[in-house]
Amino acid sequence: MLNHLQQSRNFSDIRILRALATAGLIGNIVKHNASISGAEVGCQGEVGVACAMASAAANQLFGGSPAQIEYAAEMGLEHHLGMTCDPVCGLVQIPCIERNAYAAARALDANLFSTFTDGIHRVSFDKVVQVMKQTGHDLPSLYKETSEGGLAKDYKQM
Ligand code: SF4
């Protein structure tokens, strides 16, 4: 996503690095307070958090305020809450590849949505991280990288 933005908008390397630092900050907040492991909390912790990181990075890149950046990150994660991890055949391919691409597109939407606001919103990013952790704890193990449920369960190789 950042590569696409740099190519299409001519952002300098230093601005991309700042956006990456913002993404890293968001990822570390989740890693410290919850988890970024599909085996622990399902795909919400992997693709959901990646979306939050990308949302924050994009918003920072387009000049968002700290409140708008936090809002973009919050939306990126909130709308992946509950997403299960069920990789077909135990490989990080289906649904992972397309799912990441969709999340990148969602991150651009979260950035845009936040840009249209003053950054004030009702559910904080910290709260969504807590909810993600609890939801991941409540998910049955068959939805946490075991490939025993969901898409992985009934897939037949052609
Ligand atoms: S579904 Fe794929 S991308 Fe999502 S947590 Fe599982 S292995 Fe990772």
TrEMBL record:
An MF annotation (GO) of this entry: L-serine ammonia-lyase activity
Which controlled-vocabulary keywords does the entry list?
Answer: 4Fe-4S, Gluconeogenesis, Iron, Iron-sulfur, Lyase, Metal-binding
Q: Name the Pfam families for this protein.
A: SDH_alpha
Instruction: Look up the signal peptide feature and give its range.
Output: none
Q: What is its EC number?
A: 4.3.1.17
The cofactors it requires, by name, are:
[4Fe-4S] cluster
Q: Which terms does the UniProt entry file under GO BP?
A: gluconeogenesis
For this protein, what reaction is catalysed? L-serine = pyruvate + NH4(+)
Which InterPro entries does this one have? Fe-S_L-Ser (IPR051318), Ser_deHydtase-like_asu (IPR005130)
- For this entry, the protein name equals L-serine ammonia-lyase
